[in-house]
Inverse folding.
């Protein structure tokens, strides 16, 4: 009998807590761990600058030996979401460099057959996309793996 009553009280407290937050200490306590869990889960994931849904432009490209295929010459900014597949026979990277020569975003070296994404906020202007991995004494960029992208 006491066991049944205790269970019923717990169920009532749980449903009360779910409907009206802060009515009892129990309801409040139940609400907090959920909030904390979701907050810590999102901070442990690598945070992109924005979600693919929030992109102004989505660009699908391929990295081959030694060029980028499928890159447009201009895109709408500022939120540009790149998806890059390595369709070559060696590692490649995808570095976005501003007109001032400063890198603004990068997909670090990734292997054959891999596909990586990069969410980057680009102000209007001209950008260079390049791969600086070396093949002998030359970089892939010097071998042709370099593109210009205008962000509108
Ligand atoms: Cu490369």
């Amino acid at each position: 009998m006491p066991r049944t009553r205790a269970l019923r009280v717990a169920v009532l407290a749980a449903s009360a807590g779910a409907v009206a937050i802060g009515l009892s200490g129990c309801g409040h306590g139940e609400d907090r761990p959920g909030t904390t869990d979701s907050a810590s889960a999102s901070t442990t994931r690598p945070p992109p600058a924005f979600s693919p849904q929030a992109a102004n432009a989505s660009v699908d490209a391929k990295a081959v030996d030694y060029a980028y295929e499928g890159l447009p010459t201009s895109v709408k900014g500022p939120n540009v979401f790149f998806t890059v597949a390595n369709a070559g026979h060696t590692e490649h990277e995808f570095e976005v460099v501003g007109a001032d020569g400063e890198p603004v975003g990068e997909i670090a070296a990734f292997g054959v057959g891999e596909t990586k994404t990069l969410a980057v906020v680009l102000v209007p202007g001209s950008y260079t996309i390049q791969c600086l991995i070396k093949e002998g004494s030359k970089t892939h960029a010097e071998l042709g793996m370099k593109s210009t992208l205008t962000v509108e």
